[in-house]
Amino acid sequence: MIILQEIGNLSDGSVVKKYILTNDNGFEVHILSYGLYIQKIIYPDGTDIVLGYDTLEEYKNDNYYLGCIVGRNANRLSNASIIINGKEVKLSENESPKQLHGGFEGFHRQNWIGEVEGEVLTLKYFSKDGEEGYPGNLEVSSSFELTNDNQLIIDYKATSDQDTVVNLTRHDYFNLSGYQSKEIKEHQVQVNSSFYTENDSTNVPTGQIKSTKEGILDFSELKEIGNQLQSFEGELPMGYDHNYVIDKSLNELGAAGIVRFENKSLAIFTTQPGVQLYTAAYVNDLIGKGGAVYGPYAGLCLETQHFPDATKLSHFPSTILKENEEYKHQLIYKFANS
Which residues are catalytic? Predict the structure, then answer.
């Protein structure tokens, strides 16, 4: 079942809507039309496992991408630019000299138009040619379905009238002990990956793809985050913020990773080639839902994506969307009481 609520207006008068998806097992997912923020994911025992805010105004002022869609391009782009057909295209610089997560007014700052058909919610946005510097008029959609086998199935589609770049992700912060609870260092994480893309000091890829084997980045089997950090004390003072190469074929739906805490688990499947593990070290004294105070390690993200800065690194899977071709990928969150 999908329930619709109107929760406020933007300055242009457009109405922001909240869609509440439920299944027969007592799971709930609350999605805003503004920024496609997932405000809540509620287990049948009442535990809400995502960080978020109480009000629309807080989401409008959000600077942490606290549960939103990210686009046109996820992650960082060096020199705030992309290379298309051999030419450099300059973009907006919202993390100078880089662009981060689509720019100042990326897809997380837009009010999407929703349609409900049966148990599927589809939200659409029209991104104009030149928006944040990206070429092409882009029509993009993201659909959500909460199934009775406790999967949230998310499908993305986009088409453009010019060659452009598209690399969409979600930026949900998970805490399986509850959004208002302790940090996630006691969570166990497994990432289906043997390699990662190395970053330079500015957090953009060097182009080197390196092995994770037996190092601090090795989550090839379930490992507790806090134990991993302690075992390699001092190596990652700001925690995890790394893009992993998923062990699967390109465009194939496969396992990206799993998170477990006590009796709850979240498995993530994707058609994307990479997944960014982020442990929220840059979050500090942020007031969230119910007055909860979020600090470092209050949640973790597993952002399925193409590799960062891909247009400048020819051995990375391409993020170019050709004129009149279709971009599509799928993301699945599977919830369980383990």
Answer: 171, 303
Reading the block at residue 111, the tokens are 């009010």
**Nearest one of 152, 160, 178 to 71, comparing CA atoms:** 160
- Would you write out the chain's pLDDT as a tens digit for each of its 338 residues? 999 999 999 999 999 999 999 999 999 999 999 999 999 999 999 999 999 999 999 999 999 999 999 999 999 999 999 999 999 999 999 999 999 999 999 999 999 999 999 999 999 999 999 999 999 999 999 999 999 999 999 999 999 999 999 999 999 999 999 998 889 999 999 999 999 999 999 999 999 999 999 999 999 999 999 999 999 999 999 999 999 999 999 999 999 999 999 999 999 999 999 999 999 999 999 999 999 999 999 999 999 999 999 999 999 999 999 999 999 999 999 999 96
Going by C-alpha positions, the residue among 308, 301, 305, 303 that lies closest to residue 279 is: 301
**DSSP run (H or E) holding 229:** helix 225-231
Query: Of the candidates 228, 287, 312, 326, which has an alpha carbon nearest to the alpha carbon of residue 64?
Result: 287
**C-alpha count within 13 angstroms, C-beta hemisphere, residue 48:** 17
Domain of 254 in residue numbering reads as 2-337
Tell which phi-psi region holds residue 229, choosing left (phi > 0), alpha (psi between -120 and 50) or beta: alpha
Contact call for residues 38 and 29 (beta carbons, < 8 A) = yes
The domain that holds 314 is classified in CATH as 2.70.98.10
Other residues' Cβ atoms within 10 Å of the Cβ of residue 142: 23
CA dist 62 and 58 (Å) reads 6
| Cα pseudo-dihedral 249, 251, 254, 259, rounded to 10 | 110
Q: Of 10, 306, 309, 6, nearest to 156 (Cα)?
A: 306
Residue 302 sits at φ, ψ, to 5 deg, of: -125, 90
Number of domains, the chain: 1
Task: For residue 90, give both structure tokens.
Answer: 């300059």
Cα 225 to Cα 176, 186, 221, 293: the distances in Å are 13, 6, 12, 21
Q: Per the structure block, which two tokens stand in for 80?
A: 């705030």
